[in-house]
Inverse folding.
């Protein structure tokens, strides 16, 4: 069996996928890739500006192509956009071509993070806090079945990177950081894997 050398982080906007990808890659000694950054570099336009200038269906098609271009990358943690897992066969494709981790966040925590983020979110733009809360609750519920197809689910709000590394190593992913990789189960994980 071929070793898994790609980790895909999936989850809703504000879950901390990009930050966690950087921290996890650093801990594993791997590279980090963000599909939003790849999109912006390839098409020379921000995701937010693309949404404003074109339409979401075109974005999702191009986003899927960008995602699938990661197939040739090795020893990499890939942060995906909040909707990446929810279109076409993207979630199934990520499960076949790497190890998927769903960064679960409560809808209210997602709202709080989006409101206080410096990063513009196309789907949140122009909404009041009340409108955003209502939108996130419904939108998150629609996307949840896709995210839940990930091989591992972690709680984003209190994520401990070292515990995540230990769990990934126990799953046969990444270098062995220490001999004590079979430690006790951590409360940051859901048992859906």
């Amino acid at each position: 069996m071929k070793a898994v050398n790609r980790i895909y982080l999936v989850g809703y906007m504000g879950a901390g996928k990009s930050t966690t990808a950087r921290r996890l890659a650093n801990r594993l000694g791997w590279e980090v890739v963000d599909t939003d950054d790849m999109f912006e570099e390839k098409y020379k336009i921000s995701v937010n500006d693309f949404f404003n200038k074109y339409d979401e269906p075109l974005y999702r098609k191009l986003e899927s192509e960008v995602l699938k271009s990661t197939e040739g990358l090795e020893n990499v943690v890939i942060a995906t956009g909040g909707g990446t897992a929810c279109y076409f066969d993207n979630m199934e494709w990520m499960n076949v071509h790497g190890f998927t981790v769903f960064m679960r966040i409560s809808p209210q925590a997602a709202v709080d993070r989006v409101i206080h983020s410096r990063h513009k979110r196309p789907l949140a733009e122009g909404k009041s806090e009340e409108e955003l809360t209502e939108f996130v609750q419904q939108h998150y519920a629609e996307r949840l079945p896709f995210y839940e197809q990930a091989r591992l689910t972690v709680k984003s709000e209190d994520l401990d990177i070292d515990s995540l590394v230990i769990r990934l190593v126990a799953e046969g992913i990444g270098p062995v950081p220490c001999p004590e990789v079979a430690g006790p189960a951590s409360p940051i994980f859901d048992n859906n894997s």
Q: What stands out?
A: Residues 129-147 form the longest helix (19 residues). The domain at 6-170 is CATH 3.40.50.300 (Rossmann fold). DSSP finds eight helices and five strands in the chain.
